[in-house]
Design a protein that fits this description.
With 345 residues, the protein is mainly alpha-helical. It is 53% helix and 5% strand. It starts with 34 loop residues before the first helix and ends with a helix. This is SCFD2 protein.
Length: 345
């Protein structure tokens, strides 16, 4: 979007976590990093320099976190960046922040944002880090209940050639979910009216079923489909996200996170973990509303990120051991572990 540029080639670039025997934050220089990470840092510096050259920028860098300091220092001493800074006409402040300093933001569910939900719940487009697969079967005469139907190519979110879809994506990113869904309906109604499709405009709350019924109008009209294909892909992504079971879990996460923040304020870490313990259920004991193993990993990252300094002691050791055991049992009982769980184990 106009305000956000992602660098998917560097999606795996994460600061090394301080572990036993690893370099402490103070002593990290480029030379102290593992080879792979060193190469990734150099690649990032090269790409940023190319970007700043295209924008004609003379940057002043600031860094928050150990790896960010390394990147800022590399950029400052990069030969082609020095030459660029001598001739560039535009000034900019660049702030680097270590991703591990904001894990609570990355795993939290506080954003009322449709773009975030679409990117979180729909399956990734193969080979892409920042785009998703949109099931297009609804626009065809093919009737199948098979979720993995691969006869029809998936749609996606990137629609650079469709002005209406680009405008709608901006509202998905910048508006609250309720307003963004209303924008989706407005764009659909306008498109249908332009194509003289028999659309009945209705007021009030927008439902996924209502959006689906509007999409159906385009189905047998090839010209209309072709003219508004980008827009239809984004609206289908909205419908599929709103109907997705993970979206209803989103509110459960949010409620639990708020409860955790209150509990952490009033009591110690062991009691928070003990609250979590009965919720960790094995595959056979879970209903569709219960948390799965990955959900607990996300919650644990959230808890440990927001709690600050943790007082060590016997009580904490016992509570952590119980949670570990319950999680290990739940992971071992999974009949088909997800790719993430397979990677972890």
């Amino acid at each position: 979007s106009a305000e956000l540029c992602l660098l998917p080639a560097l999606a795996a670039l994460l600061p090394p976590l301080p572990g036993p025997g690893g370099p402490g934050p103070a002593e990290v220089g480029l030379g102290a990093l593992p080879t792979e990470l060193r190469e990734a840092v150099r690649a990032l510096v090269g790409e940023l320099d190319s970007l700043f050259t295209a924008l004609g920028l003379r940057e002043e860098s600031f860094a928050v976190g150990a790896l960010s300091r390394v990147i800022a220092a590399e950029l400052a001493s990069y030969t082609s960046a020095r030459n660029r800074r001598r001739t560039a006409t535009n000034k900019a402040s660049v702030i680097f922040v270590d991703r591990t300093l904001d894990l609570a933001g990355a795993v939290g569910h506080h954003g009322d944002n449709l773009a975030e939900k679409i990117l979180s719940v729909l399956p990734k487009l193969p080979g892409h880090k920042t785009d998703v697969m949109v099931n297009m079967v609804e626009l065809t005469a093919l009737q199948t209940t098979d979720e993995t139907c691969s006869i029809i190519a998936p749609g996606c979110l990137a629609q650079p050639n469709d002005p209406a879809a680009k405008a709608l994506w901006e509202s998905f990113m910048n508006l609250k979910q309720k307003e963004a869904v209303m924008e989706a309906r407005r764009h659909l109604v306008e498109a249908a009216s332009r194509e003289n499709l028999p659309i009945k405009m209705s007021m009030g709350r927008v439902t996924p079923e209502q959006l689906s019924s509007y999409i159906q109008l385009f189905r047998n009209n090839l010209k209309a489909l072709e003219n508004h294909c980008g827009l239809l892909q984004l609206v289908l992504a909205t419908v599929q996200t709103l109907k997705h079971p993970q979206t209803s879990k989103w509110d459960n996460f949010l409620a639990f996170e708020r409860l955790l923040l209150q509990t952490i304020g009033e009591s110690e870490m062991p009691s928070v973990l003990n609250q979590l313990l009965p919720m960790i259920k094995s595959y056979n004991e879970r209903t569709k509303d219960d948390y799965a193993c990955e959900d607990f990993l996300v919650l644990l990252i959230y808890i440990y990120s927001v709690v600050g300094e943790i007082k060590c002691g016997k009580e904490l050791d016992i509570a952590e051991e119980k949670v570990k055991r319950a999680l290990v049992k739940a992971i071992c009982d999974e009949p088909e572990p997800s790719p993430l769980l397979q990677k972890i184990t």
